[in-house]
Amino acid sequence: MKILLTLCASLFLITSVSAFSPFGVKIGVNGGNMLNLPEGANNTIKMSFYAGVFTKFDMGRRFSLQPELVYSRQGARLSPMQLFPDESGQLIDLGELNKQIRLNYINIPIVVSYKVWEDLFVSVAPQLGINLNAIDRTKYNDYTATTKLNGIRRCDFSLGVGLGYQIWSKLDVTVRYNLGFTNITKSKSDFNQHNIKNGVLQLGLGFMIFE
Q1: Taking the model in full, what pTM does it have?
Q2: What is the pLDDT at residue 138?
Q3: Averaged over 115-143, what is the pLDDT?
Q4: If you ran DSSP here, which 8-state letter would residue 163 be given?
């Protein structure tokens, strides 16, 4: 209930402000990763997507402020080795598992952009992420199991650094990397001691609907 109220309040704030200022939508691809996983997890990038809305305020000729509300699929792709002891206690390698950890977030970044040259700009974006759910999808041979992960913290704080280009007055393309500051696992989780954080590379388009 708290999450729902937070999301509704955030959406109401952005849409209310947008009635008197520019309003747009954005969509793109994520390259998600989970940093500091235990050795042997064989962590690789998981591709997914993000989509959201934003409003924008110009602050002088070069600076702008852009609050956003974004749904983002993050996580990682893992392929840990399966090791089991035989009768003598010797570990036997049974091959790799194919695991996809999907973390679904509502992210609320506040993007500060600076135009460095004509239509080229750089940006920094402190961000609050609210985890909606976490899913582990494991595949081995022809068997697939999907389970819910309960050890993920509700909130994640991160900082995004990006580069963008204004293609025309209503359309821009941006690339941004979000580095998490928060250990996303709960204290009772087996992985809490590893201080696992989110890392997400994003590439996408922003389209201004109202100006």
Answers
A1: 0.81
A2: 82
A3: 90
A4: E
